[in-house]
Amino acid sequence: MRVIAGKYRSRPLKSLPGMDLRPTADRLRETLFNVLCAGNPGALEGSAWLDLYAGTGAVGIEALSRGARHVTFVEVSAKAAALIERNVGSLKVESGFSVMKMDVGAALRKIPGGVADYVFLDPPYRMEAAYRETLNQLAASPLVSESTVIIAEHDRRFDPGEEFGKLRRYRKLEQGDAVLSFYRHARAD
After folding, report:
1. Which residues contact residue 46 at a Cβ distance below 8 angstroms, ignoring those fewer than 6 apart?
2. How many other C-beta atoms can be found within 10 angstroms of the C-beta atom of residue 35?
3. Is the torsion defined by CA of 151, 154, 40, 14 positive or negative?
4. Predicted confidence band of residue 58 (pLDDT cuts 50, 70, 90)
5. Pairing status of strand 70-74 against strand 48-52
6. Predicted local distance difference test score (pLDDT) of residue 2
7. Which domains does the chain show, CATH number per domain?
8. What is the pLDDT of residue 189?
């Protein structure tokens, strides 16, 4: 696993053994960022990110590498949170990020003010209810504005849903067994 592009391009990232941590594959991460940047390589400059169920931190680190101003990593597992800190540390990133070692629901209530430009969520695939709970919470959160893009990575055999409060899915991208579902406020369509 490596950083795909930007300031930390080709730098390796570590993972943990076992199936509890399923990092977003390099190819899928590349597809995600190609979609978000769609012809504008500087599209992520100065953006604020929430990387929920962050695991290795690969998606948030990719955002930092491509110019994000700040990434908040949220991970309940102490081992995974420590891994995120090691991965960020190995790149010598000293600012522009925070790691919250807690449940996503609690973190969303505690994250200080400010709106996220992008929210990425990737719970373990077996935690299907976590998708709906998190998307419903994001739909009502002051951290999400009409311009916020929310991306959920999920298994191809599971569909988290089209609509959550004000949020509507506007794009679905399949790649192998993984799918990226993109959501935003319905008024932003």
Report:
1. 67, 68, 69
2. 14
3. positive
4. very high
5. parallel
6. 79
7. 26-188 (3.40.50.150)
8. 43
